[in-house]
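User: Let's play a game. I give you a shape written as tokens, and you guess the letters that built it. Ready? Here's round one.
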């Protein structure tokens, strides 16, 4: 199938060598620019736009076309608002594909209500709910971050190795939170340990003392927080610290970000271990240098995954030989996996040229992309701690 796609792409490019006069190609970027993860999305958007700019500046994309990013706000938590944003980008801005969305609930809503009915491909850098693995997406939905089914196992193993036998779990009351909590609980209990309480919390509350009181009553010393760093997750942690309810904390990926370190400060130092998708593959360091040069933080949450999502869309266009939405969707897995020449960050021009010449590529990018199963990444995780005002990487899984 991959060779057929690339042969078709080469023939199409040969038949239409000059398409620059058709104008820029609009591609949507739907992220929670407001809401519970608003502190991390600017770096994510900048990462995707860096990939779009790299492909555009090469002069090789579809014979000289450029990508025009069109931003939209998912809010992360408001499915109706996210759906309206996606509808606007598709019907008014006529985007050919979407980089996003970010949070699992709004991503699910967009896939079901907008992307599938309109045949628009999406690549999310951060929607990690296990439920998205089986969504009826008609082959249109992909993600560069691994499923939380894997994240739950990774965190459980880290705690097992650290000798932590009992925990309390709190999770944001949505698809992301519940999916990750269920995955972790299953893996942790399979290792012979105990989740003494697992309770949902709502975002947007001014006071979380009641929730923390119930969690503390379980008798656990360690609190696992599967929430959002700019909303309920932070509130839970602050209330727990204010009351001295817990000695140590475990963070999921939604709690990874400098904003919570800056907001809470030294009370967190030495008390946190967590996991976030991340890789130490050869492309990771290159991407971070590129981000630094572009003026944003390449080591921030889901930045590598966002660059990779943008790069895959550009490369899939080239492999398809057009901006047809269905053709782009069909080409994503082909450019992401073997066989073919490995393509890393900063090498999109090389990949575009190989595809234009009828060759094959294996895009690994910033995070070691490999598409498995229903269009999702195998993925790896960065284990982190918080020390002296910084998020410190202590290993990879």
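Assistant: Ready! My guess for every position:
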């Amino acid at each position: 199938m991959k060779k057929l796609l690339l042969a078709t792409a080469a023939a199409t490019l040969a038949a239409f060598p000059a398409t620059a006069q058709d104008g820029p190609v609009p591609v949507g970027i739907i992220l929670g620019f407001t809401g519970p993860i608003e502190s991390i999305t600017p770096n994510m958007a900048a990462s995707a736009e860096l990939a779009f700019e790299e492909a555009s500046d090469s002069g090789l994309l579809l014979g000289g076309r450029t990508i025009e990013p069109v931003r939209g706000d998912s809010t992360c938590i408001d499915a109706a608002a996210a759906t309206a944003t996606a509808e606007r980008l598709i019907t008014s801005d006529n985007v050919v594909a979407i980089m996003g969305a970010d949070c699992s609930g709004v991503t699910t809503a967009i896939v079901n209500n907008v992307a599938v009915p309109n045949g628009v491909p999406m690549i999310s850098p951060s929607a990690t709910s296990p439920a998205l693995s089986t969504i009826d997406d008609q082959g249109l939905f992909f993600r560069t971050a691994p499923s939380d089914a894997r994240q739950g196992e990774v965190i459980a193993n880290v705690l097992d190795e650290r000798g932590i036998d009992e925990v309390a779990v709190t999770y944001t009351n949505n698809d992301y939170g519940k999916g990750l909590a269920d995955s972790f609980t299953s893996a942790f209990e399979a290792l012979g340990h105990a989740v003494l309480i697992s309770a949902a919390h709502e975002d947007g509350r001014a006071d979380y003392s009641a929730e923390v009181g119930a969690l503390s009553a379980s008798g656990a010393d360690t609190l696992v927080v599967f929430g959002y760093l700019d909303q309920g997750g932070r509130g839970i942690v602050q209330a727990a610290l204010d009351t001295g309810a817990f000695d140590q904390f475990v963070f999921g990926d939604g709690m990874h970000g400098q904003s919570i370190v800056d907001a809470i400060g030294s009370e967190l130092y030495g008390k946190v271990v967590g996991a976030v998708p991340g890789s130490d593959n050869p492309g990771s360091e290159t991407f971070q240098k590129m981000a630094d040069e572009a003026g944003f933080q390449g080591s921030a949450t889901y930045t590598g995954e966002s660059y990779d999502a943008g790069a895959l869309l550009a490369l899939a266009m080239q492999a398809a030989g057009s901006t047809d939405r269905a053709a782009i969707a069909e080409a994503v897995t082909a450019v992401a996996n073997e066989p073919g020449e490995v393509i890393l960050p900063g090498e999109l021009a090389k990949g575009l040229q190989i595809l234009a010449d009828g060759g094959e590529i294996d895009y690994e990018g910033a995070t070691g992309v490999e598409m498995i199963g229903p269009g999702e990444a195998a993925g790896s995780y960065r284990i982190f701690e918080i020390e002296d005002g910084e998020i410190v990487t202590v290993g990879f899984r």
